[in-house]
Design brief:
Blueprint lengths: L7 H11 L5 E12 L5 H4 L3 H6 L12 E4 L2 H8 L1 H5 L10 E15 L14 H6 L2 H6 L5 H11 L4 E5 L7 E5 L10 E3 L2 H7 L4
Helix pairs in contact: 1-8
Length: about 200
Amino acid sequence: MKTKPNPRYDVFVTELGKFKRRFSEWDGVAFRAAPLEFARLRKLLDGKGGLRWGGRWLVAARSRAVNLSTTHEAAIKESNANFTYHNFALSDLKPKVIVAVRLKLKRVVDLTAARGVRAQPWLLLDELLAEDWRKINDTGHESQSQAFGRAARDLGAEALLVPSARVRGGVNLIYFPESVASPTRIEILGAEDLARWIKKK
């Protein structure tokens, strides 16, 4: 389904574009709990899953995005979001692989810091975290949070650092692989072991 752009996108582009300290550097390790179909090295960080299904910070069919968390506990809980949202049966729970990724990013929009973008009056972060983006998308519309993510990406952001809407105290890193200038700054830890054990049948 094609989604209608959220009108807040233009506000986000304008205001974020005017904000001089909109980008921060981020150097750390984040985690992904990936379904087996995306656990191979060439698929793990390509963002095609985000392109296909979308998420809180980017609507489906717009651009590639990879959802990571700064702790493996949060990554597991975030990966089960659709499972709990749709109240699937336990028989629908699929195996997953937890992978650590080291990222050195230069252009990150940080919504976790008390000062900075988060503190701006045109950004109501609590609303963005509380909205039911799936329900909004089902009506054929882009959510506010997705409009913000799109604005940040269009202004050159490599990633968003955001509070988790599901895990108390959790922090997520939404990584835009098409925006990263140097892929060498992204390293899958234990890549050799992963390639060894996750083999194509």
